[in-house]
Queue: 2 jobs
Job 1
Amino acid sequence: MTVTVRRTLAVVLAAFLAALPLGAREEKKDDNPATKLLNRDVPRHKQFLEIAKKGDVDVLFLGDSITQGWEGAGREVWKKEFEPMKAANFGIGGDQTGHVLWRLTEGKELEGINPKVCVVMIGTNNMGGNTPEQIAGGVEAIVKELRKQKPHMKVLLLAIFPRAEKADNPLRKKVAATNELLKKLAHGDNVVYLDIGDKFLQPDGTLTKEIMPDFLHLSPKGYAIEAEAIKPTIEKMMK
């Protein structure tokens, strides 16, 4: 193919695209893998549906294994601090943003409940396969879906917790880069962004096994730190 022919084809293609309706030009804009629905039709999801049928949930925790851990290492703190607030734990270990999106849309997990506040933390399981921009896009889609389904419910969006032992770990830097994007999702009183990551760190930026035994999941002490850090904001948002 000659240079002249290539230039001619390029001009024709540009003219063709310009003539397309705006929607047609943008329909493939969202190729973000972090917004692709990932089926989560598992027993724990079905348990959530049963909880939702009963209603009477004022605070919903939504996320992955760190959220699910309120039933493990964090169970005593949960019982003391959040159970009296009529809180429900909708965390599933291993969840990525796409799983949570499926649970909210195809999975219908919000049907039957009308929480005052939804506490969201998701994205750490996307770190291996997605860019910060893609992860933030997945979280944004979750927040939008929550606001769409429950417009009177406020969202407390937690920054992704730091992970890996050392402050200079590439994974730690990727988490920080993602959180810089997540903070932009805050919107008045309806979507509040809260970064409590520093509360888990030593002065030199390291994580200890006392707080995160595997440098990812929280210990009982870690959950106590989280509860103390987020409960005042939850209480304020419930008013």
Note: The chain has nine helices and five strands.
Job 2
Amino acid sequence: MKVVPFKVPQTRKEAFRVQIDELPHFYDKLHQHHEVQLMWIEASEGVLIAGDYVGRFKPGDLYILGSGQPHVFRNDSIESTNQRTEARSLSIYFDESYLGNHFWQLEEMEAIKNLITKAARGFNIHGETRERAKEIISRMVREADTARIIYFLVLLELLSNSSELTPLSVTAPQESYNQNEGKRMNDILQFTFEQSHRKIYIEEVAQIANLSTEAFCRYFKTRTGKTYTHFLNEVRVSNACKMLIGKEVNIQEVCYNSGFSNLSNFNRTFKKIAGKSPSKYIS
């Protein structure tokens, strides 16, 4: 599982790149790229990891992923079954080189420039801003040449003036992963997603990372800003949310199926991460 650095293809000179993906599943490796990415989820749901953020994504969600921010959208179907469900998204990629560095330095672009700087942590766009942004994007992709650029700038202006952008990651990315680091982190994530339903010992994950237990704990905390145990609990709570929403099983069954060993710990951890108890989450 490699390589974390990901190059966004450019076939011609362009102010930004629009990419429409219709795939069995989203690209399931932790990766990063220089461009800022605006991603509209049209179909599929699962778990999003963006920097130190872990949470669920679903159809209709709209995200900004910052330059160099490691991220991965993992579909539920990949984690739980061998079946493949359709995943659709529309992404807009851009950076300062696309319109030229001088353009982004214009005084009129200051608010948008600030948005791009803050986007290093990533954003979840919600509320009226999200719906308005989708309308602009839908018009933009149907246009060409100058009209498309105008809609692009209108979109950036909307986002730069909105208070309906919630940061994803607590911290901004400090450095890029090299190939070896990318493989190590992908192996850790793959193992965690596949085994989160059972008790996991730190020694197991350290072995996956080819590190001593102490070195692994330091490595993971440095890379993500959180302990592995906290990250594992976030993954388990995310999986529990899916089961609760689907009402496939009762709360006690969700507790054990998602990897928690007792109900009181599940309720306490769920409320800490999700902001409400499991019973209130489904009410």
Note: The domain at 17-167 is CATH 2.60.120.280 (Jelly Rolls).
